[in-house]
Amino acid sequence: MLTKDERQSIIALIKREVVPAIGCTEPIAVALCVARATELLGCVPEKISLQLSANILKNAMGVGIPGTGMIGLPIAIALGALIGKSEYQLEVLRDCTPEAVEQGKRFMDEGRITVSLKEGISEKLYIEVLCEANGNEAEAIIATGHTNFVYMRSNKDVLLDNRQPATGDVETEQDVPLTLRKVFDFATTAPLEEIDFILEARRLNKAAAEESFKMDYGHGLGRAIREPMETPVVGDSIFAHILAYTSGACDARMAGAMIPVMSNSGSGNQGISATMPVVIYAEDTHKSDEQLVRALILSHLTVIYIKQSLGRLSALCGCVVAATGSSCGITYLMGGTYDQVAHAVKNMIANITGMICDGAKPSCAMKVTSGVATAVFSALLAMQQKCVTAFEGIIDEDVDQCIRNLTRIGSQGMNETDRLVLDIMTHKTGRC
């Protein structure tokens, strides 16, 4: 049984990592950093210079910026300077208006923005912003976490300097030691009143999905699955509902809908994938609110646990991690024990480990759908006491070692993949 102090530490961890966000978190984090530097400058910058890590560039190049109808970093940077408020955190652009977008376009056209790759760093999440105007300058740096400011300067006055020797993106000073057993025990035994805040994830992410059904966002995968449910192709089933609602929420988010989603570990898509399959399964099978709360906590905390050793950004698609969490939540709702939840984790790791992240973009909805489909299959097998064995591939008898095997591949083994993906993305000669 977990102690009260252990429970409170885990609750604080969840509340740090499961937060609302508008838009893809990488360009929004850039806008946040620009907003803070602008606030330090005290006026609209004449010039903004940015140095970004490769993974920030990769995830900010092809994604819609909420409320703009535009794609990519420049408009996010311009709006961060013009209307961004750092106090809003990952909702920094929520005051965006059509008038602000027009101002942002003019700001971009004036050539005030310079973006370059930051060299010589090991952090995969790094944003450095220098704003200049009237002979004054201000600088802000975000590193390791999407809202984690490590440096602020106004002219020669250093206001914050928490820069440390680069050790990657794992925020060990804030980590709560977790195992899958501890995650499961917490989710299934914590007093309900301490954890029912997670229902806000249902409200936000389901609203995003329902918004996507009204309009043609991105590639419209959610609508495509949902509209022909009466046909033999997908049918009108729990499985089809899970796919439609999860991909739909992703469609809306990645296309730049001005609607908040509940993120997990700095990613809206991870938050969606950890939430919607669990919510839809619970609703379609008439589970109680308590069962839903515990399943959502199990899902989200599993994601947080895996991300502790994987890091914020990697070449491994985040849907692999998030769908692993939702598979745990679905297994629990099916009546699964701890051992069956562990089986689901092993099934997930055996199947979709290695799915690459090639940046944030509308087609992420397709990867999310692949992930949550696998989540359902993994749960079904787990409930039949079937899982991939230690004789197969990277699976270990110990489920926590399986997770470490997954994160080693994502954080270490796929670094060259990451570099190659970015090289391909930045040297494309044409468009489809």
In words, what does this structure look like?
By secondary structure, the chain is of the alpha+beta class. It has 2 domains: 24-161, 2-Layer Sandwich (60s Ribosomal Protein L30, Chain: A); 180-426, 2-methylcitrate dehydratase PrpD, CATH 1.10.4100.10. 53% of the residues lie in helices and 11% in strands. It has helices spanning 4-17, 25-41, 54-60, 73-82, 98-109, 180-189, 192-195, 199-214, 221-226, 238-254, 268-284, 289-310, 318-333, 338-352, 364-383, 399-413, 415-426; strands spanning 20-22, 47-52, 64-65, 70-71, 113-117, 126-133, 136-143, 149-154, 157-161, 260-262. Helix 8 crosses helix 10 (238-254), helix 8 (199-214) packs across helix 11 and helix 12 (289-310) packs antiparallel against helix 13. It is globular and about 70 Å long. The model has no long low-confidence stretch (mean pLDDT 92).
Biggest sheet, open or closed, and with what strands and sense? 6 strands, mixed
User: SSE order, as H and E?
Assistant: HEHEHEEHHEEEEEHHHHHEHHHHHHH
Summing up helix and strand content along with how strands pair, one would put the structural category as: alpha+beta
Which term fits the overall shape? Answer: globular
Total number of domains = 2
Strand order of the largest sheet: 5-2-6-7-8-9
Rg is 21 Å
What do we call the CATH topology of the largest domain? 2-methylcitrate dehydratase PrpD
CATH class of the largest domain: Mainly Alpha
Q: What share of the residues does DSSP label as strand, in percent?
A: 5-15%
Count the strands? 10
